[in-house]
Specification:
Layout: E1 3-4, E2 18-22, E3 25-36, H1 40-57, E4 66-70, E5 77-85, E6 94-95, E7 101-107, E8 110-118, H2 124-137, E9 142-150, E10 164-171
Parallel strand pairs: 1-2
Antiparallel strand pairs: 2-8, 3-5, 3-7, 4-5, 4-9, 6-7, 8-10, 9-10
């Protein structure tokens, strides 16, 4: 894996996977613990459809695509945060029309593995599997959390085969500050 300086600013899909240094980025998110996976689309729809407007009302702007950050491997349920990276920290709790509460959080800074998935969301599990295998084969050690950024906004007009989702996994820091 080679190093790249700004994993959030890539205009082209990131293939193959790489290691990068990520800066900590403030986020505005809905946090859920033990959230049922079968309800994921309602969580995302109920968050993303109203969040930008709610943030604008308090003078905060999204600075990147929607994100879902996972604190553990989801199985039947997930411990996650869904929302947007934002231009300044959110210091109050906002309530969306869906009833979800939005709080401030962060995407962590540090070393990350990153790769892009291009295609329908149905193929994400396969891309995650190949990505984690590639990270392991490179000698890197993964840590929690991991996250997805939905670079292409999924509208009814978008061809699902063109959807781009960037995958990120926090990596253990390198000892001695050296980079491979």
């Amino acid at each position: 894996m080679t190093s790249m300086p700004h994993p959030y600013d890539e205009t082209e899909p990131i293939i193959p996977c790489r290691a990068a240094e990520a800066v900590e980025v403030p986020t505005a998110v809905v946090k859920k613990k033990d959230f049922p996976m079968y309800e994921m689309s309602s969580l995302m729809d109920g968050t993303f459809s109203h969040l930008a407007e709610a943030l604008a009302e308090v003078g905060i702007a999204p600075i990147g695509p929607a994100v879902a950050l996972h604190h553990r491997m989801p199985v039947d349920t997930a411990d996650l945060e869904v929302g947007f990276p934002i231009d300044k920290p959110l210091t109050e709790t906002l309530t969306l029309p869906s009833g979800y509460e939005v709080v401030g959080s962060v995407l962590p800074g540090g070393r990350v593995g990153v790769v892009s998935h291009v295609g329908s969301y149905g193929g994400l599990a396969e891309t995650w599997g190949a990505f984690t295998e590639d990270i392991g084969l490179s000698g890197e050690q993964m840590m929690y959390p991991f996250w997805e950024m939905y670079v292409t906004v999924p509208t009814p007009e978008v061809d699902p085969s063109t959807l781009r989702t960037d995958l990120f996994h926090l990596l253990e820091p390198r000892s001695g500050g050296s980079d491979k």
